[in-house]
Structures are given as structure tokens and as C-alpha cells.
Amino acid sequence: MVRETAGSLTRPMIQARKSEGFEWAESSFEKFFLENYHRVVAVLFRLLGDRGRAEEVANDVFWKLHCQRSTLSPDGNVAGWLYRAATNRGIDLLRAAARRKEYEQEAGRTMLETDALANPLEKVLRAEQRARVRVVLGSLKPAQAQILILRHSGFSYNELSEILSVKRNSVGTMLIRAEAEFQKRYLERYGKEQES
Q: How far is CA 11 from CA 5, 91, 108, 112, in A?
């Protein structure tokens, strides 16, 4: 069914796009949207289990498709691109949610374990250590402080690359430099015996 819908719409859209310099003809795009929107939402709902989120992702993917120009080949499978983009985005969201849940659970376990074992003196010392870390972070260049905070908050290299608008293969180097600078400034300020 997807192929029939895609095939019947692809040729008129291609012609409109060729004649308008790779722009969508509004009537062609509207027809394509109406014929595919509910099915895309249904696929995403099945994947995400949340209708509102499924509709949000579908809208984002259709908007991205509408804005496409030369990145889609004129004789390409537009419906195929649409469903691949929608499911890829849905899978990315599931992965991010799983990572976030894992980080939150680990943070909760760590907090429970440390609170159960900590006496008042240990709590004061931990609070002092956190204050020192904040002082040193405040003395770093903003980009170095950002990457350290984000990485230690559980963001992956891919997420850091996207957030900081840098190439993914630069993230590791940036982290190493930021960590070295943090350690240097921490030692200068608080001395070796305070390092943790």
C-alpha cells in the first residue's frame, strides 16, 4: 500500500519540483501529507506508545520533508524516505529515553547509597568538595566548563557534538583538554592532597 500511494504521488511531485527548482508544489505536498500523515502517526504511535509524541514527531518529519530541496533525488522514493526518517527519529527518541532513565536510576541509587552510609561530617565534606568543583568550573573557559558538565551529566559523544555544534570526532579531544585544564586549576587552587 505504501508503494502504491508513494508511486501515484511521486511523479506529479517530481514534475512540480523539477519545474519549480526542487520546490514542492503545495497541492502535491498537501495531497501527499493527507494520504500519509495518519499512517506515519500510527507507525510512530506503535513505536513510541504515546500518541501526542507520535504526532509531534510526524509533524517534525513532514516539516523536514517539506523543506527538503536538493537532498532528495528527483526520482527517489519520497514515501520511503518519509517512513525511514520517521522510524529513525522514533528509535532515537527511545534510545535517549532509555539512557535518561538509566542515568536517573543510577543517580537515585548512588544518592540512596551515599545518604545511607554518610554521617554528618561526610555530608559536609561532600558539600565542600562540590563547592570547590563549582569554583574551578567557574574559572574555566565557558566551552570547557560546558563540555565537562554535560558529559558528567550523562550526555553521549553524539549528543555533545550536536549540542555544542562541533564534529563528533572533536568531542574526545575537547574533553581531554577540558579535564586536563580542570585538574591543573583544581591542583593549583586546592593542592594535591585535596584531589579526588
A: 11, 30, 55, 61
